[in-house]
Amino acid sequence: MFNALDRAEHSRKRRVVGQLITERSMRSFEPSMTLQIDVFLHQLLASSKKSEVVNMTVRCQRLATDVVGLLAFGYELNTQTEDTNSIIPAAMKSNAYRIGLYIAWPSISFFDPVFRWLGRKRIPKFYQTLRKMIGRRMSMPKDAAHDLYAVASGDVTASGDRGLQDTDLWSEASFFVVAGGMTVSTLMSAIFFYLSHHPDVYARLATEIRTTFNSGRDIASGPRLSSCRYLRAVIDETMRAAPPTTATPWREDDVYSATPPRSEGPLVVDGHVIPPGTSVGVNLYSLLHNEALFPGPFEFHPERWLTIDEEEDGAYGKEVQATMRRAFAPFALGDRGCAGKAMAYLEASLTIAKTLWYFDFEAAPGKAGKVGGGTPGRTDGRERVDEYQLYDIFTADHDGPNVVLKPRAQFTNELGMKSDA
Ligand code: HEM
């Protein structure tokens, strides 16, 4: 769907695939997601018992890969607990790197055979794993899992659309792993970074979670989770400060659409007529750090997303808030904007809320605790120590934060494990 130039073809695929990531569909998928988050929490507990420094990029990447593997392929990748399928996140990262490079610099795709040759050891292993996942899934009944195969394969779907044929289906499933795995893992890693660098934000969020729920098991989608306004503000402020999609979402006139509906008249941006074949785009990082739209763009300030009634000091007036909301586009906008918003909010909300329920955490002592932030003295925009550093690989590459966790001893029994703390 992502690379379908034809409008009608794109919207057909989006309707078929999109059924899997609606809010309603997420309610059916939530138990599978929660089981993976439980594994994540168990791993954190094991590390905390050994007083280990935990790199949250690594942990969040594995969690998000396992969750999206279940959603896309109905397959338990188990990267959180085993090394067998660790090729998947690694291959997805190099794939994203290649795509990002070609998006930014299309003519370099001429060298694609060279890049593929460089990855010659990894690529066959990746396709082998992919074939294994597809073979396993196709040997199971269609409704054996709540995944893309169940929702979008063959036949005619619930919305009356022809479903996807096998090749298309599995390439959409692979795209999901990048689109839905790497992005959510960046979002969660960045939230851990900002929480461990802002004790005031951490304290306010921890209080909200710990006073809203009665147990960690209660943390699930529904009115109580939706009432956690500060949690949502932290998630939104993190996506503003560190947008998980680093590539510019380029757009161009839809003359490539073989079939109607095409846009009427030329593409006009801000009064300029854009000739067919010319790409236009605004990088999301630039948009979300534009001082004219977001006051104090380099400050991490979740309160900016609370309404005046929720926020006593009323730091921003209604007009400023309305402008910020209009310009807040980490998922891009329009009919090519992100299809997986509901999943991103659910996975990040559950993971962060449950981690704060069961643990206290802080940045690791010394140098390790600085990983993920900028470096003082640099002059290329990477000097802000409190800004989570992202590297453009279409989605985002990053490292850290490194944190140390302390179980909240009275609650870890709920996880089915005893804490020695
Ligand atoms: C924080 C998490 C996420 C962010 C920030 C994000 C951001 C984006 C952005 C900016 C685009 C538009 C790209 C472009 O137009 O060039 C996009 C597209 C897309 N995203 Fe997400 N995304 C996230 C999570 C997810 C998840 C969890 C899924 C599903 C598993 C998903 C599925 C998709 C799909 C299928 C598209 C292509 C839509 C189309 O072409 O119609 N995303 N995302």
Automatic annotation (TrEMBL):
Heme binds at residue 338. Its cofactor is heme. SUPFAM superfamilies: Cytochrome P450. GO terms for molecular function: heme binding; iron ion binding; monooxygenase activity; oxidoreductase activity, acting on paired donors, with incorporation or reduction of molecular oxygen. Keywords: Heme, Iron, Metal-binding. The keyword Iron applies. PANTHER family: CYTOCHROME P450 (PTHR24305), CYTOCHROME P450 MONOOXYGENASE (PTHR24305:SF226). This is Cytochrome P450. The lineage of its organism: Eukaryota, Fungi, Dikarya, Ascomycota, Pezizomycotina.
